[in-house]
Amino acid sequence: MIDIRPVANTIGKLVVTLGAAMSLPMLVDYAHDDPNWKSFLESGILCAVIGSLIVFATRSNEKSLNLQQAFLLTNGLWIVLPLFGALPFFLGAPHVGFTDAFFESMSGLSTTGTTAFPSLDTLPKGTHLWRGQLQWLGGLGIIVVAMIFLPVMKVGGMQFFRSEGFDTLGKILPRAFDIARETTLVYVFITVACAVTFIMLGMNGFDAVFHALTTCSTGGFSNYDASFGAYPGAPQLAASFFTILAALPFIRMVQLVRGDAMPLFEDVQVRAFLRWLFYAIAVIVLYRLVWLGAENPFHVMRETVFNVVTLTAGSGFGTGDVTQWGSFPFAILIMMGMIGGCTGSTTCSIKVFRYLVLFKAVRAQIRRMHSPHRVFPVMLEGRPLDREVVGSVMAYFTTFMLSFGLLIVALALTGLHPRTALTGAWATIANIGPIWGPEVSANGAVDQFPTASKWLMVIGMFLGRLEVLSVLVVLHPRFWRQ
Amino acid sequence: MIDIRPVANTIGKLVVTLGAAMSLPMLVDYAHDDPNWKSFLESGILCAVIGSLIVFATRSNEKSLNLQQAFLLTNGLWIVLPLFGALPFFLGAPHVGFTDAFFESMSGLSTTGTTAFPSLDTLPKGTHLWRGQLQWLGGLGIIVVAMIFLPVMKVGGMQFFRSEGFDTLGKILPRAFDIARETTLVYVFITVACAVTFIMLGMNGFDAVFHALTTCSTGGFSNYDASFGAYPGAPQLAASFFTILAALPFIRMVQLVRGDAMPLFEDVQVRAFLRWLFYAIAVIVLYRLVWLGAENPFHVMRETVFNVVTLTAGSGFGTGDVTQWGSFPFAILIMMGMIGGCTGSTTCSIKVFRYLVLFKAVRAQIRRMHSPHRVFPVMLEGRPLDREVVGSVMAYFTTFMLSFGLLIVALALTGLHPRTALTGAWATIANIGPIWGPEVSANGAVDQFPTASKWLMVIGMFLGRLEVLSVLVVLHPRFWRQ
Ligand SMILES: [K+]
Ligand SMILES: [K+]
């Protein structure tokens, strides 16, 4: 039997933390004389009480986690925290049912950014702040999990990054605090810098803080129905810059802050990510200017940079309807969303690192096919990629694609239009956000979707955020029999 | 340098054979007093002359092929033969340009079945017969190539089947004749049985032969604009039956004819294929009857069986518009098309065998993740799957998916609607046939597509038919430097 006490204990502590975080939106609503502040008080008390009970009931002397417990913790975090994070939407504005409240909370903590609320402009400021906080906390959570747990769990080739993290499971917790602290500092610094930049570019204070929270987590929630279209000018370029930062490996930025910039600039993943972004932007800008003869090159460039960056890194803010650009840019944007950002960042999707491994492996395979008697080692960053990493990345890619296909079929079963089913599966399993289809509300919300579709999309966000394989491991019967 | 003489010699002989095959449509048109017979005479003479010149110019004593030559031959066959097969469409009815003629010929020889001709009902019988023959010959070609060359070329895990084929390259040619002869006999027998069945079910002789040629090659060309909708009754069930036969591994049917039925019934690939077909049919029938409340269960069942079977095995005959069944059946049909039939059959797409390997490999990966210190061998059919096969299948799946994505983007670049780009890439790279989208003509033809789209689709058919990797090997610069 797996001892779930240390797992439940950690989750309990984080539930209490989540409750404490609700004091911020409570204060904001109170300061604006909005009676909605009470819902945050109630939710916060519920979190504090239930969380404390869990912590109290699961005390144990065991401080380190074994592999099973690491899997359970990772899965448990993104099931239990969204439950508690949903309370304010349920007890307070916009007073939606359990499905929509949970959907919004999961969309926040998984940094997906699809909203279930059809009218954002009328919501209290506290509710918006809470949505922003959920994304910001979810982004922080995934960086820490990606650096500490995924390499040990060997999820989709993440063991390649083990030497930079932890080698022995017993050492996880003590060193976790060091890494978590430094990463949190970098994350906070980037967020503050983002908010200050937004303010300097003319955003009001609240909008700046809110959008900084959802930009630096590559979450993509907005507090306007027009999404980022409400700030069409320089703020979009600033948001693109900070989205790119948030899509880089945070360990490299920790090294940068320690005074060593080379690891960041020499990282093959970072270089490939920036190169691919540049290509996609250049091709779409040329297409729109030369083929379609769009006028106002500066406007086209800014709009393209913003949309390519936010859809690739998966924040998914919208500015107008990108489908209007034509099939080709739209197809590129959909494909870019399947790439995502760098490993160890807040971004989701398949990620640059895995494509680099896939390309190397396929090239090695092709060489092996025409020269069967020679050995072609697969190398990345000057290090040989062992077969285990390659096999693990390929298993990840396969599982991701099959889950994506199944999710499309399942969403179609709930009655969604094929286009909605396709982009809905894409938006959720790759945690990007925007969905195109006849059932989508004017502000991009899914409130009109059947309940079954919403739950399938919740499953998609959960699978995508936890890199699919970590969930399947826990669903495997043998996992529980050890 | 690679000695291309034996390769060109074989191709030359097949060009002569192709020319000889043109005598059939010539006779048919002559018998119907259609002046179109001359175009087949001209094309046939051209094939005979040029083919003979090639054979004459490339005489050599070398009878066996090395690995490089096997790759060149496989690629060369599906480039040169479509060129010569296109002559009758260019010199005779429907007198289309080079692009459409080559498209139709490639669609035939690759057993894709997408047509470039908007008005099939008005074409001469000889032209139709030639379209049928192209598919039939293409189907025969791929079975032989899949049995003889792909295992030695190690394309996408095909080396798993090597023990059943050939171990030494030097022995390819002598044994190739044995296998090719027996397989051809089985293929001819199935085609004759199919034609006879069609006649007994009320088809006229010509339609029966034509549809037998395109059914047993899982090609899917029709001589009616209404496709198989022209024969709505029992012929559809018969076509479903023969399509399933054509999607089974032909080596198993050779064994069956030799008196040993067990290998066929015990083949895990065959069992999985039939099981998945059954599930898909059952789910769609239930959905249409129970959810949508469709009346006439027998009609629904027949229509569903026919469409699931032809889209999965990739013949892709149409009966009415399956998009009218709703998103869910449509999404399932699209996914089933991504499966295809069994290895060593006339079908294309990813194929059942590779999914079985992928599932096994992903399961082994998941077990390895939660029990890192135990060894989980990957087994299939009671034999261990070595890492090379698993890696090769995964490389195939990755390359197929990436090519599919790139093809969608490229088709969108030519201006096609996103739906057309998506289903057009699907129909061609998986060699299925039907395309849905606003640019498609009433009979499903691509004649209104931009020329660039047609050529991209030709590339898609070529890549799909040759299992993507065999093409990439030849495109690799190092291939030529050996
Ligand atoms: K997002
Ligand atoms: K076909």
Automatic annotation (TrEMBL), chains A, B:
InterPro entries, per database record: Cat_transpt (IPR003445), TrkH (IPR004772)
Molecular function, one GO term: metal ion binding
Superkingdom field: Bacteria
Keyword Transport: yes
Main localization category: membrane
Protein location: Cell inner membrane; Cell membrane
Keyword Cytoplasm part of the UniProt annotation: no
Residue sites binding K(+) per the record: 111-112, 219, 431
Annotated membrane topology: Multi-pass membrane protein
UniProt KW keywords: Cell inner membrane, Cell membrane, Ion transport, Membrane, Metal-binding, Potassium, Potassium transport, Transmembrane, Transmembrane helix, Transport
Stored Pfam families: TrkH
Residues annotated as transmembrane: 7-28, 40-58, 70-91, 134-153, 185-213, 233-251, 272-291, 330-353, 393-413, 455-475
This protein's GO CC annotations: plasma membrane
Family from the record: Belongs to the TrkH potassium transport family.
Function: Low-affinity potassium transport system. Interacts with Trk system potassium uptake protein TrkA.
PANTHER family cross-referenced by the UniProt entry: TRK SYSTEM POTASSIUM UPTAKE PROTEIN, TRK SYSTEM POTASSIUM UPTAKE PROTEIN TRKG-RELATED
Protein name (record): Trk system potassium uptake protein
Native source species: Paracoccus aminophilus JCM 7686
